[in-house]
């Protein structure tokens, strides 16, 4: 199987380690970034299939990061995954074209299905 | 729903108009449709959980309510996005409607009182009862008795609610704490301990705002930098509605330069596992908890204790009770030692009763400022902690305080070596309405008495297995519904009370923290039951009567029955109120009739309305509309005609499109052929012999759930639809109570290949349906599927496998579809489950072998 190229963006180290380990076990190719600017750099270098993006990050918040990702790679699906149950972020994120909005904690299976949905939806929409 | 089905049929049966969509567009549309349905399921499921919580009262806290409402909102928004993609430009208006509803939800959940913006520090001399919103009740009441009655209280100051908000907002701790509460579970003590740890770490790392630190330093200097007692004075603490008795931290003997650390520690105790248990169980909003902190000069007490201006267990309105221990009064409040007690008549000021306990330890303030526990030796053990004269002075002061507040009081006091009485705390005393009665003479249960004459601390009676709690590990192992037995009435035990049936401790007082919390939770409690640890060890079930002070062997129904009428009904809590008001924007369904002119976006008033609208229109866009995929529905014929219909979206069949039927030989789709093979390879023997219980469970479910009624099933005509392409097949089927989607793609590029199985429903009760879903999940996981089971729903996917493996997987799904659909009825019987599982595995192996491959070789994606 062609590996899913996944970019995980979160400032929480524990989260990054735990999830990248789980996704690698699922045969995904995981790149991690612990800030918005770093995520943008990675996106400039690699052609990802999907991004999982945290919202509350120092430096540049998730919404601003999402705005710039969408400017650079409009059809790259971005899944927002946040620990802040905040209605504004939901609306802003979805208005900016996030693929979906999930709340932590989320089961690995549920998140992985969402990742596959996002990848599949993108390839279907492209064809 | 009806209309949706109608359009579905119109689509299937309309023969004219061959204006075809391309295969790609169709696939994209069906993918969006699938995601729309999935989001719909999820949103409705979460909605149902929220409604269930209002019925059962099992709410987990405001963070949970907020997260759940946002999950519903995210699901509904996803539906809107999918619908807009299915039909660009037609439904964009929904987004605005959605945003408005979500904004109203947000306002409902955040309806908080305006933040105070007062001074960061208030000095004791300036504090009155009216300062409560800034200082919390502990400091406000002390300030009040000092100024109004001239009673001696420690010198000190309050770090205010304004200071708390400044700290929380400036450092973004408020956000961070909400986040931590959301991402940690709050279901059991272990999760709460982990949460406590994370929050404490976050608070420790947050720097105090400089102006707050300066204000603290100035205040200490003004007092001459004494040793401080730093105590919680949380808003709402000690109120009649919620005592929070003993839940929060006090730091004693704090040097002024250590004040910021002590302040953080007291703040963190707002989120300790014990306090969170209390908060969640009382239905208080954890995001509205505010902790002003009292900083007071330490009193070097020769003796100290607690005074109750009424007998806490009701009765005897004329009695004042004074409890006293040598040294600092902590030993009384935390239940770690027996205390002397005087009972004094409030009118005549006559000593009615006097009991000198054997005191084994006392707390002292050491010269280095630390608080230490000392053993008490020899004669001192039995010496009264205070003189009778002091007891009478205390009684008089206590009576004056009660008179001032016009409510029974629970007063903590200290006596210094020079004989001065200092009031450390006073708060309203919760007095039980129900009098304590001795066991009636004709007590039929008397032969079963294990212990009697224990101190009743909370009325009522309950039975349960005895569980001894000594260590922290014991706390984690504590089983639901057990009788909590412990040596000392430690306030930490209150974290277990919501799960205990009754409480028994050897030491402590009926007016201590733990007793208080038992009364608030309505759990029968005996505190001061000497010998209980020994007498109850090795005994399994006991009945504890908290009204009469008696413990019986076994389950004594009469005791429980007699005590039962005394329970007060629970009042609605802050969290349930918030949940109910946010639900008014979520769950009511106003759009009931899709044919009505009101069935349009701007008439959607709730998230449920939007979900309903999207679902209905999604179905319409999928199966109606002018442009449709090539080919139309033909009925499948294999020897005889069947209730299966087939739609070819391109390359899936050969032969003429004009026929109304199609035979299996004309199906070119390899995926459908594989699926069909699985469906028919092993003859289905019909539903299992129905056991009466399983059958009744089917009938009950059908009666309760209108969607499962036979009428609804017939509306679908029991027909199933194959949508096929050359390497593609999607089966939407409905058998009676079961809904199922099987979809797969099997071509030459493994990256494109997948098999997908969604299965939900059944006629039996949820327990059996869930057992069936798990059985199917186990089998699929063996073959490399990633599977998720929630209630009776199963979602399984296999991706990125070879063409052969994908075909095999489809065959297996076909087999499982046919053979597991009605076995839910027998799923309460573990032997039947095992038997079916074995049969399925054997059949599947045979099937795989017949397809010419090694059994079980579908390679896993992981």
From TrEMBL, chain A:
SMART domains for this protein: REC
Keywords attached to this entry: Phosphoprotein, Two-component regulatory system
Gene3D superfamilies: 3.40.50.2300
InterPro entries cross-referenced by the UniProt entry: Bact_response_regulator, CheY-like_superfamily, Sig_transdc_resp-reg_receiver
Kinase found in the keyword field: no
Domain Response regulatory: 5-119
CDD domains: REC
Entry-annotated residues carrying 4-aspartylphosphate: 54
UniProt-listed PANTHER family: PROTEIN PILG, STRESS RESPONSE REGULATOR PROTEIN 1
Name assigned to this protein: Response regulator
Taxonomic source organism: Pseudodesulfovibrio portus
Automatic annotation (TrEMBL), chain B:
Domain PEP-utilising enzyme mobile: 478-549
Cofactor: Mg(2+)
Entries under SUPFAM superfamilies matching the protein: Glutathione synthetase ATP-binding domain-like, Phosphohistidine domain
Pathway this chain belongs to: Carbohydrate biosynthesis; gluconeogenesis
UniProt-listed Enzyme Commission number(s): 2.7.9.2
InterPro entries attached to this UniProt entry: ATP_grasp_subdomain_1, PEP-util_enz_mobile_dom, PEP_synth, Phosphohistidine_dom_sf, PPDK_AMP/ATP-bd
Catalysed reaction, written as an equation: pyruvate + ATP + H2O = phosphoenolpyruvate + AMP + phosphate + 2 H(+)
Entries under Pfam families matching the protein: PEP-utilizers, PPDK_N
UniProt keywords, alphabetically: ATP-binding, Kinase, Magnesium, Metal-binding, Nucleotide-binding, Transferase
Domain Pyruvate phosphate dikinase AMP/ATP-binding: 134-431
ATP-binding found in the keyword field: yes
Free-text function comment from the UniProt entry: Catalyzes the phosphorylation of pyruvate to phosphoenolpyruvate.
PANTHER family on file: PHOSPHOENOLPYRUVATE SYNTHASE
Family to which the UniProt record says this protein belongs: Belongs to the PEP-utilizing enzyme family.
Protein name: Phosphoenolpyruvate synthase
Source organism of the structure: Pseudodesulfovibrio portus
Lineage, broadest ranks: Bacteria, Pseudomonadati, Thermodesulfobacteriota, Desulfovibrionia, Desulfovibrionales
